[in-house]
Design a protein that fits this description.
The chain is an alpha+beta fold. It has a domain of 79 residues: Ribosomal Protein L30, Chain: A. The protein is built from 4 helices and 5 strands. The strands form 2 sheets. Strands 4-3-5 form a 3-stranded antiparallel β-sheet. Strands 1-2 form a two-stranded antiparallel ribbon. A hairpin with a 4-residue loop joins β1 and β2. It is rod-shaped.
Length: 128
């Protein structure tokens, strides 16, 4: 006798093989498991800062493009557009980084101009 739906399997004599097999399941006390919840502190994203190119009337355009390409890894076209925007509007946002990176890049770019005797100036300010 084989009855899969009721989980009854009998041997040749007709007695069930699995007759008491699942009885232990009914005898178990009903347990309730409560999941443990761990509070993970949410890490806050770092505040971003803009690096701003300030226009001056003394630094040659080619030098500004060279600094933008070298320090900010811009293409020739990108550097030209940033330089022209700063020339026309007075300032231009070059890139946005975390505070430490923005300050380092602005300082290095300004120092490159100062090393050549130009008043090239990059500043940083928090992004809104």
């Amino acid at each position: 006798m084989v009855s899969i739906g009721a989980a009854t399997v009998a041997c040749a004599e007709g007695r069930p093989i699995f007759s008491g097999y699942f009885d232990w399941l009914a005898a178990m006390p009903e347990t309730v498991t409560v999941p443990r919840t761990r509070l993970r502190p949410k890490t806050e994203r770092p505040k971003l800062h803009k690096v701003i190119l300030v226009n001056d009337d003394y630094t040659p355009r080619e030098f500004v493009v060279t600094v933008l390409k070298g320090e900010f890894h811009m293409s020739e076209d990108q550097a030209q557009r940033v330089m022209i925007t700063a020339h026309r509007r007075g300032v231009c946002v070059v890139a946005v980084f975390t505070k430490d990176v923005a300050e380092t890049k602005a300082t290095r770019a300004s120092d490159a101009g100062r090393a050549k005797g130009y008043p090239l100036q990059f500043t940083t300010e928090p992004e809104e």
